[in-house]
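[Meeting: bench + compute handoff]

Bench side (C.D.) handed over the final construct sequence. Compute side (W.E.) agreed to return the predicted structure before the next meeting so the bench team could plan truncations. Sequence as handed over:
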Amino acid sequence: MEINAPNAAFQAEALLGGSEQPSPSVTEALKIYFDDIAIDEQYNKSDHQKYQWRKVKRLSISDFVEAVGDLPLTDMTCDYAQQFQRYRTNRHLGNVRVLYSAYFKHIGEETRPNPFRNMFFKGKTRVEVPAFENDWVQTKILVPDTLSGLRPDLQFAVLMLIETGCRSSEVLNR
C-alpha cells in the first residue's frame, strides 16, 4: 500500500491498528441495531409485525436526522438531545435513547453516558377502549348464523376475540 506523505503518520497508525474505528452515523447504527443487536426482539414476529416494529424506529431516526443531522454516535451530546427534544416532544425520544444505549452496549461501552438518559415523554399513549356490553354481544354477534358469511377461521377468530379480549393483532398475527 502506498502511503501519502501528508497523511503518513495517520495512515501508518491506522495500518498498525492504533487509530479508533470511525463511529457509525445514527442511520448506520440503526441498521446495526436491526441486523445485529435487536434480533431477539424480532424473533417471533411475523413479516408484517417486523415491518411495523422497524417502521416506528425508522421514523424516529428519520425525525432525529431531520432535526439534528446524521451525526456519528460518538459526537452526540446532551445539546443535540435537547435540540431533538425541542423539535419532537414525543415517544421518538425513547427510540433514539434505546438505539444509543443498545449500540454502545453492543460494542462493549455500556458505561458511556447516554445524552437522552433523563428525557422521557410522559404523555398518555394508551387509550382506554370500553368493552362492549354483554347484552349487545349476545344480541348482535352471538345470534345463530350471524357469522355464517365468514370463513370458518374468521368465525373462530371473532369468537376468540370476544372470549379472550385479545387485540386482533394477537389473534390474527398481524
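W.E. noted at the follow-up: The longest helix spans residues 47-67. C.D. will use this when planning the next construct.
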